[in-house]
Amino acid sequence: xxxxxxxxxxxxxxxxxxxxxxxxxxxxxxxxxxxxxxxxxxxxxxxxxxxxxxxxxxxxxxxxxxxxxxxxxxxxxxxxxxxxxxxxxxxxxxxxxx
Length: 98
What we know:
single chain, mainly alpha, 434 Repressor (Amino-terminal Domain)
């Protein structure tokens, strides 16, 4: 599959796919989901071979079974994108300080 084909399937420009591939831009969870669907693979495909350390945080599946986490996720995506980005940056800074 070419970058152009993938971009069209996901609904973005192929330059964005290039930025994801080079690591210039981060891939959001929802975009990773879209890419997995377009490529007809499970999302876990992108994480094959990554070892988990013994003190690692819970896996995404663990969070998704938590009612509070799902409510937070729904609320987060209800926020306009520019504000959501700021909130994400704030959460990342706070988690690094913890």
